[in-house]
Specification:
about 270 residues, alpha/beta, Rossmann fold, 7 helices, about 30% helix, globular
């Protein structure tokens, strides 16, 4: 394990360097999505604090492939408990000035807001269904320096759904396996040896994997300079590991890796 590090004004420099237009004073304020919460939890008292960084979750359309009833869709899976418990870990394990609450980036109703947030998380992307305009916007976001972590999608069908949209964002780039030596696995913690992080379902099914996703993959799309733009946690569920970090039945080895991986991805996105 590497030592804890400080991230001073790196975020502001990163935004200016990569074309992000908003400084802290212009970032959107925390907003609740009570009708769409999957696992509600208390709103911290400092929810509206202005900080250098926070967890940004992507709200995307998931119509045809959602598999969910109603209009909620798949984007808020584990939300907001997973986000807020992960943020507690970021605050405790790093010196990043971090808000206690997530920020929902509404790709459906306010898509340009994404340019104010250099690190974004999307869950259950095996059900997303992006429009052509959203694909175009995300391509611009990535090429201007944005970073996306996708998580909690499993098996052949969900991979195919995910890549249907991703191939429209980047028809000119390939998805590759992340090598163990990639800096993204060594920014704060050394993660050469990783395990498949299961969803909570494994407590009941006895299976670490879901569907036909027996082998975990850490994949990516790089830019022309070798920077990871999209980091894919495929056949694994880091969100459940964050969400159930307080569940004594959920094994600590899974939670530990999920927190360390997420922190590495954050620091990588701020420094590369």
């Amino acid at each position: 394990m590497r030592s804890r590090i400080a991230i001073p004004a790196v975020l502001l420099f990163f935004m200016m360097l990569c074309g992000f237009s908003a400084l802290l004073a212009f970032q959107a304020r925390f907003k609740e999505y009570r009708g769409e919460e999957d696992n509600p939890t208390a709103v911290p008292k400092d929810a509206f604090e202005q900080t250098e960084w926070t967890f940004a979750r992507l709200r995307y359309p998931s119509g045809r492939y959602s598999g969910y009833s109603g209009e909620r869709g798949s984007w808020p899976t584990d939300f907001p408990k997973a986000d807020r418990q992960f943020l507690e870990g970021v605050r405790r394990l790093t010196r990043i000035h971090t808000r206690s609450t997530e920020q929902v980036i509404d790709l459906i109703n306010d898509p340009d807001e994404i340019f104010n947030w250099p690190w974004v998380y999307a869950v259950e992307v095996g059900h997303w269904d992006l429009t052509d305009q959203q694909c175009k916007l995300l391509r611009e976001y990535f090429l201007r320096g944005g970073f996306l972590m996708v998580d909690d999608f499993h098996g052949t069908f969900e991979w195919d759904v995910f890549t249907q949209s991703m191939s429209r964002i980047f028809p000119d780039r390939t998805i590759v396996e992340l090598p163990d030596a990639d800096p993204i696995f060594h920014t704060v913690y050394d993660l050469d040896h990783r395990v498949q992080v299961p969803g909570l379902q494994y407590l009941y099914s006895g299976r670490i994997y879901e569907k036909d996703g027996t082998i975990p993959h850490w994949r990516a799309i790089y830019d022309d300079e070798g920077r990871v733009m999209v980091a894919m946690c495929f056949n694994q569920d880091d969100g459940d590991a964050w969400e159930h970090a307080d569940n004594p039945q959920y094994e600590a080895k899974y939670t530990s890796q999920a927190y360390r991986l997420g922190i590495n991805y954050i620091v990588y996105s701020m420094t590369h």
